[in-house]
Amino acid sequence: MDRPISPPAGVSLFEWVKRELRGAITRGDFSPDQPFVTQREIVERYGVSTTTAVRALNELVADGLVVRRRGKGTFVAERSAPAATDARLLTFINPGPCGWHETEMLGGLVTASGALGYRLAIERSETVAHEEELLRRAADGGSAGVVLYPRDGSVAADGVERLRRAGVAVVLVDRYLPGLPTDAVIFDDFLVGYDVTSAMLDRGHRAPGVLWSETEVTSVRDRQAGHYRALRERGLPELPERTALRVYDQLEPAARRARLRAMLDSAEPLTALICGNAPTLELVVSDLLEMEAGFPGTLELAAMDQSTPHGVSPLAVASARLPTRELGERAARLIHRRISGDTGPIRHEVLRATVQVAERGPNTLGVIGAAVRA
């Protein structure tokens, strides 16, 4: 087992070591009668601390992948025969939390898969490592197909390959894995970022800020690229301090408001904020209303998706309306075709969103004014 150079970007040393050890087990680098790599060997091979090595081994034991034999050491666990594949079982792995977007997607998936005669098992991944574990279980647990909604920072490529080797069909939804060709049903997120930004530029804004809830997913990166394209086409500058991929919603309230204050007090006047999704928009509104010091003028708000199935998000002057339910339905039909023997080229089915803009007026929603906090 050769030592990798370093962990992938965004992956902790512990997650990296555990992933590499699990991969070695999956590949069959160790047989059940052969001693497994020791704590000391992990430290030397990966250049990590003893604490990290011990934790990795303990978690592999907890996962049932290795066993400790008194007086003999650690060994790969004997593997039971894989469960027989249930041709009518699909597994949906998603990160949660279950907001409107996820509920609509799941509704489409449940309806379409049920109409095709499938039962749907729903699993929620709590962490990147847990997502990997759920994929491993799906490969061993008899599912005919897996619909995967990857987490932010997902490292699911190995797990997807394992599913394929086990003969399990895989379709990704909402985002894709850049380094691994897979079937996927996604939105045209580049166009989402472009159209929402263009709508705000059409309203006279020249340097909108953008706030994100995730950073290591293709949907967000594509939206950022679309945002930049809209600015470039109009000869407007890109202002990284206002648009960089930095997580907003996971910050403490004081840190979120400090970031907003820095944007408001910058030399270039801030007249608009675009949020990567509706939950971030709602949080921004709350933070703006709670800020002690006001700011001159008004801010117009926009979102790159919606929080309800009807029209513009209530807190935005412009928002993208995503065909989220259709995404779930299309994913069910695509995975059914694969299970049924379709061997055509791997493909992405791309759905287009529509951007809706509120009419201007004195009571237009999505406008935050200084007077609110006076």
What would your notes on this structure say?
Keywords: DNA-binding, Repressor, Transcription, Transcription regulation. Residues 11-79 form the HTH gntR-type domain. It comes from Pseudonocardia eucalypti. This is LacI family DNA-binding transcriptional regulator. The protein is of the alpha/beta class and 374 residues long. It folds into 3 domains: 13-76, Winged helix-like DNA-binding domain superfamily/Winged helix DNA-binding domain (Arc Repressor Mutant, subunit A, Orthogonal Bundle); 86-186 and 324-351, Rossmann fold (3-Layer(aba) Sandwich); 189-322 and 356-373, Rossmann fold (3-Layer(aba) Sandwich), CATH 3.40.50.2300. It has helices at residues 13-27, 39-46, 50-62, 100-115, 128-140, 157-165, 189-202, 218-233, 240-243, 253-264, 278-290, 324-339; strands spanning 66-69, 73-76, 86-94, 119-124, 143-148, 169-173, 183-187, 209-211, 272-275, 298-303, 318-321, 348-351, 354-357, 367-369. The strands form 3 sheets. A 6-stranded parallel sheet has the order 4-3-5-6-7-12, sandwiched between helices. Strands 8, 9, 10, 11, 13 and 14 form a 6-stranded mixed sheet that branches. A two-stranded antiparallel ribbon has the order 1-2. The longest helix has 16 residues, at 100-115.
